[in-house]
Amino acid sequence: MNLQILVSVILITCGLFFMFSGSIGLLRLPDFFSRTHAASNIDMLGVIFTMSGLIVYEGFTLTSLKLLLIFLFIVLANPIGSHALGKSAFESGVYPMLRSKKKSSNEGDE
Amino acid sequence: MTMEHFFIGAAVFLLLVVIMSSILIYRGPSVYDRMVGINAVATKTIVLICFIGYIYGRMDMFVDITLAYAILGFFGSIVTAKYLVVNKTGRKE
């Protein structure tokens, strides 16, 4: 029982740390596609850790099964939504920033 | 006993992360940056509702709300991404 709570606390703390770093990346990165990368990947990792911690804390019940279903649905749905959003942005004319040095010197001039 | 306090602290921290991530919705240069911010906030809100369910002690009710919210957010994101193709306007803004 004690080991279960310990593992759950460690997993939830790891997930919260990954969500925090993903949010920092969402604010700091310069481009649309790199922001998509931060939002999709790092949030995905945070959701994986946090949901695993909640499932470990719950044990073998019906609520745990529903949490597992939510986890599988997020794992399926979040990359699909992010990919659709990136494809829609690329089709409407947002291109990836290729030369970062020139852009950063331009930003330094401003 | 102590686990409830841990869930309250985790929920407050996650709320701060949601506020920090919703700055992007406010200051995003194009529409797509705002959509990325809305996706991130929706993903974090799912975990936040799970924490709130453990704080109230009625997880069997809140897990259904979480499932409905996940499905609703996913379909909203897909439909918005499908009908948001604008010709060459998100480039220079």
Walk me through what this model shows.
The complex is a heterodimer of chains A (110) and B (93). In chain A, 85% of the residues lie in helices and 0% in strands. With 110 residues, chain A is mostly helical. Chain A has one domain. Chain A is elongated and about 55 Å long. Chain B has 93 residues and is mainly alpha-helical. Chain B has one domain. Helices cover 81% and strands 0% of the residues of chain B. In chain B, helix 1 (2-21) packs antiparallel against helix 3 (31-56) and helix 3 (31-56) runs antiparallel to helix 4. Chain B is flat. Chain B starts with a helix and ends in an 11-residue tail after the last helix. At the A-B interface, helix 1, helix 2 and helix 3 of A face helix 1, helix 3 and helix 4 of B.
In helices, the fraction of residues of chain A equals over 70%
Spans of chain B with pLDDT under 50 lasting ≥5 residues?
Answer: none
Helix content of chain B: over 70%
Return the string of H and E elements of chain B.
Answer: HHHH
How many separate helices of chain B? 4
What kind of assembly state do the chains in view correspond to? heterodimer
Domain count of chain B: the total is 1
Most extensive interface: pair and counts? A-B, 48 and 45 residues
Distance between the termini of chain A: 59 Å
Main beta sheet of chain B: strand number and arrangement?
Answer: none
- What spatial form of chain B do the alpha-carbon principal axes imply? flat
The outline of chain A comes out as elongated
How big is the Rg of chain A?
18 Å
Task: Write a short abstract of this structure.
The complex is a heterodimer of chains A (110) and B (93). Chain A is mainly alpha-helical.
Pick out its properties.
heterodimer; A: 110 residues; mainly alpha; 85% helix; 0% strand; disordered C terminus; B: 93 residues; 4 helices; 81% helix; flat
Layout of helices and strands:
The complex is a heterodimer of chains A (110) and B (93).
Chain A: H1 2-28, H2 32-58, H3 62-91, H4 100-109
Helix pairs in contact in A: 1-2, 2-3
Chain B: H1 2-21, H2 23-27, H3 31-56, H4 59-82
Helix pairs in contact in B: 1-3, 3-4
